[in-house]
Amino acid sequence: MSLKEKVIKKTPMFVQSSAISLFNTYQYKVRHGGEYKKFRKYYAKAENFSADQLDREVQKKQKSFFKYVKKKSVWYKNLNTKNIKDNELLEKKDIINCYDEIKTIADKEGIVSLTGGTTGASMKVVYTKKDMQERFAVLDHFRAQHGYRLGKKTAWFSGKNLITERDIKNNICSHYDFINKIRFYSTFHVNKDSFDVYWQSLVKFRPEFIVGFPSSVYELCEIADSLGKTLPTSAKVFFPTAETVLPKHREVIGRVLGCQLIDQYASSEGAPFILECTQGRLHIHPLTGVFEVVDEHLQPVQSGELLVTSYTTHGTPLIRYRIGDHITLADSQDVCTCGSIFPLVKRIDGRTSDYILSPTHGKVNLGNISNSTKNIEGIINFQIIQNTLDKVQVLIVINDKFNVIEQDRFIAALQERLGLQLDITIEIVDDIPTEKSGKFRIVKNLLGK
Ligand SMILES: [Zn+2]
Fold it and tell me: Which pick of 2, 19, 289, 418 has the fewest CB atoms within 10 Å?
């Protein structure tokens, strides 16, 4: 726990809320100051670029980014600026071990962002203020296309743990930033016991927009759904962050909160953006960077591992960065009815490391595993953990619709996906903890860890 969190946890609630508003207002000024307005105009204009114009702008952005990086970063002093594919990949461990060589500015000159790595090693990157302003311009432009602006009532489910068990017992599950009208909900305490506290708060708050981890919002909605509850005043849009969105997230959250789910892909290390349009399709934003999709031999494929090069990472440059996610591109002749010429992505498949290794079926990915609860009653939440090659442990949180028949159907669905040689043990639990980052993981592959 950081000192700031310690201080906040011991401070009375009203003072806490003020501190959060002030903190957010400072962040807001950094993110929305400087060149932010210029970038907002630029990204609005970019929607109407012709193919030629877009191509010229992309070349311009890439050239200027590469020139800067080659000059300022020791790590990239031999960067091939003409052909991006001639450059080595950047791995997560490189950022952890060689941070000082890669980065181009001192931490105190920029904005430091910490990422909870999957292996426990925490990773740090530093952004220039200008890049941060550009990134927020892209995001705000995107959210504005879906009706959002700052000051509209928003419920935020983020990874900051500012609530204690005692707060929950006192019916407190959030902090309110009254200047920006954002209510920050804890994602660490969503479960059956605390459901009423969260639900009453949401019903009373009547948010227009929801932002945050889809797994947390989903869990809350899943409990509400099992109790036959829907939000009396529908929200407009849910903008998920940080995790892969699954079809069941969309379905249940939409039904309970009455809102649309509008997805995006980005990351705290500074990946370029993939954004959902008004027609519900995902577009790569070519002015934010390069997305290469490759197979294990680094050859281009339609569905595979993602390598990103991001033009808004002057502080800690990412060039051909192996971010650890899988995506599937749309067919090249596919055109979107929204009118945008930005390239289409068929789907974001999630993290490369989110798979179970089966002796008979090989790597079984997250998307496939998460479908195993389809049409099975009574499972609110589950997590599948693999420690050894021959067995998996499945934790489930259930409601009273769950019984032996449903359990057998669930095991059969898992066996269909994982094969019969993997021993499956089911354990019913009250709650499945989130990771240190506050994110929830359906698949935990601990092989070799
Ligand atoms: Zn579109």
Answer: 2
